Amino acid sequence: MNWEIVMGLEVHVELATKTKIFCSCTTQFGGAPNTHCCPVCTGMPGTLPVLNRKVLEYAVKAGVALGCEITRYNKFDRKNYFYPDLPKAYQISQLYLPFARDGAVEIACAPGLTKTIRIHEIHMEEDAGKLVHSAYGEASFPDYNRCGVPLIEIVSEPDFRSAQEVLAYLAKLKSTFEYLGISDVKMEEGSMRADVNLSVRPAGSQALGTRTEMKNINSFKSIERAIAYESARQIEVIESGGSVIQETRRWDENKGKTFSMRSKEDAQDYRYFPEPDIPPIEISDEMLEKIRACQPEFADQKAARYVEEYGLSEADAKIIVASVRMASLFEDTVALCGNPKEVRYWLLGEVLYFINDRGMTLSDFRLDAQSFAAFVKIAASERINRRGAKKLFEAMIFADHPLDLEAYIRENDLEQVDDAQLIREAVRAVIAENPKTVEQYKNGVTKVAGFLVGQTIKRLSGKAKPETVNRIIAQELAKL
Amino acid sequence: MQITRELVEYVADLSRICLDGASEEKMERELGAVIEYMEVLNALDTDGVEPLSHVFQVTNVMREDAVAPSSPREDILAGAPEATGQTFVVPRTLE
Ligand SMILES: [Zn+2]
Question: How many angstroms separate the alpha carbon of residue A164 from the centre of ligand 1?
Fold first, then answer.
């Protein structure tokens, strides 16, 4: 039988605010355990949580960007459960009136093919702490530094049919939030996390099968593996006469398998009720208008503009817009030097080579728009050839201090020789040294002229301008 | 809605509260009375009435995104039944 996989996603994204959602503790990463904590985020009795204005702003920005209807009157609820990563024994979340609903995200699922993934809702909530387990012994050690870090949870409809679609969607979310500047969206560091709800059904069937929820998948690569494993597992259960149990399963990256996390007796009953400590939120026309007005140009629009305005190929444009920093470096440099083709050449040739092959990032280079534009003007001129330009470029991007381009050209003698007299002398010497080649040329084998050009450039330490050498060689050979 | 002994036991279990027989009986009676009182509302026509989510007529109580110092760690850990110098200690959660 042919099976179809049906998936929905719950994506948690940490918002990049300076402080936590309900208290003024820092959200900074890497503090010593329990040092970014206060009575509010550790759930001490009698404390009063107060919403961070920036969290609401960032959340609404995300909702607008994902085409959602913004819930103008929204509020928080308590989700009650006992687990030591949550000191209050409840998480402040949004169940009844989430701030955003009914969105849609367009993903590219195959070249030239797009698909719409519907967003069911987005809500704001607080992150939980981290539990450190000792290798042996009977204890776990909670660190509440992440407790209260603001999250939005984006709940999709069950619109995914393949791992590729899931990956395309996550990439789209990541790019959207990067351009909005509201999150670091790094899966590997946990600032974006995906739970996958997955079921299988006979191809062509409309009914949904029983689903399982996979938690804690923390890289794009593991998502693909987890989906492949879990769909195969469910198909095998059904084909061997069993039935899938609705449950939460944990993805184990090392074993490459999912494991049942909670037994059925433990079925969750969160006893949600309205959060009495936080008054409702009203989103004014003015706030919504302001947020709509400052939505940035997103990756797809940007790429289309690069093709249109700068004459880049679609493939090149896509590579540049995949990184917000690279896109802004590209645009700022082009604005200063007016030469998009040349900027593209160095960005995608040189810089991308170092990024891909040596695992570097854009911030590892000394490369700002001003110096890049100055370099491009030199590289595009006749003053230095490609080899010299490459040397100059690498010297610039790996320099400890801002590089004086002119001084470097002078000190390393990179200027092209365009002195006709000098070149003519070199050409004559080469002709004198290579009588056999010259003989061949005279016998009609004209392609050997290329060899003579090469010899001449070599004699001038690679700095001669090839066009001039060509012209003079032609003149000198004609004289023979 | 009927408050039964089973429901009291279930809610107590969810709340991690240990009740003896007498307390369970008391809870069953008291919670039952509360729910019964709420039943009065069902007699009223509430069509077109927005559910009340907050008793005060205030909205948008928010603060600026400005960092303030967190508490000293020893203060945070002071009330814990068990702690190391750096973290709380809880029963092992990984099966
Ligand atoms: Zn705090």
Answer: 39
Residue A202 forms contact with B (CB below 8 Å): no
Q: Are A143 and A92 contained in the same domain?
A: yes
Return the closest-CA partner of residue A175 out of A360, A325, A67, A365.
A325
Of A337, A292, A347, the C-alpha closest to A317 is A347
Tell whether A81 and A39 lie within a shared domain. yes
Q: Which of A287, A308, A330 is the last residue of a domain?
A: A287
On whether the CB atoms of residues A140 and B92 are closer than 8 A, the answer is yes
Q: Are residues A125 and A24 in the same domain?
A: yes
Q: Is A307 helix (H, G, I), strand (E, B) or coil?
A: helix
C-beta separation of A77 from A273 below 8 A: yes
Domains of chain B: which residue ranges? Answer: 5-43
Walk along chain A (480 residues) in steps of 10 and give the mean pLDDT of each run. Answer: 94 97 95 96 94 98 97 94 90 96 92 92 96 83 96 97 94 95 89 94 91 87 93 95 90 88 65 93 95 95 95 93 93 95 92 86 88 92 84 91 90 78 86 88 85 85 79 84
3-state secondary structure of A276: coil
A367: how many CB neighbours lie within 10 A of its CB?
A: 20
Cα(B63)–Cα(B73) distance, integer angstroms = 24
Residue B95, pLDDT score: 52
**Domain finish residue from A390, A411, A432:** A411
Given an 8 Å threshold on Cβ–Cβ distance, is A25 in contact with B73? Answer: no
Nearest chain B alpha carbon to A130 = B87
B92 touching A (Cβ < 8 Å): yes
Same domain, A426 and A399: no
Q: Supply the ipTM of this predicted assembly.
A: 0.88
Question: Could you tell me if residue A69 is inside a domain?
Answer: yes
Strand-strand pairing, A130-133 and A139-143: antiparallel
Say if residues A39 and A58 touch (Cβ distance below 8 Å). Answer: no
For residues A431 and A388, membership in a common domain is answered with no
Structure confidence at residue A172 (pLDDT): 94
Q: Answer whether residue A292 is part of any domain.
A: no
pTM: 0.84
Say yes or no: domain B5-43 is CATH 1.10.20: yes
Query: Of A17, A96, A140, which is closest to B93 when you measure between CB atoms?
Result: A140
Q: How many domains does chain A have?
A: 3
Residue at token pair 């609903």: A101
Same domain, A194 and A219: yes
Residue A166 lies in a domain: yes
- The one-letter amino acid code at A303 reads A
Q: In whole angstroms, what is the distance from residue A267 CA to residue A273 CA?
A: 18
The domain of A351 spans 297-411
Residue A381 neighbours by CB under 8 Å, 6+ apart: none
Q: Is A367 found in the same domain as A249?
A: no
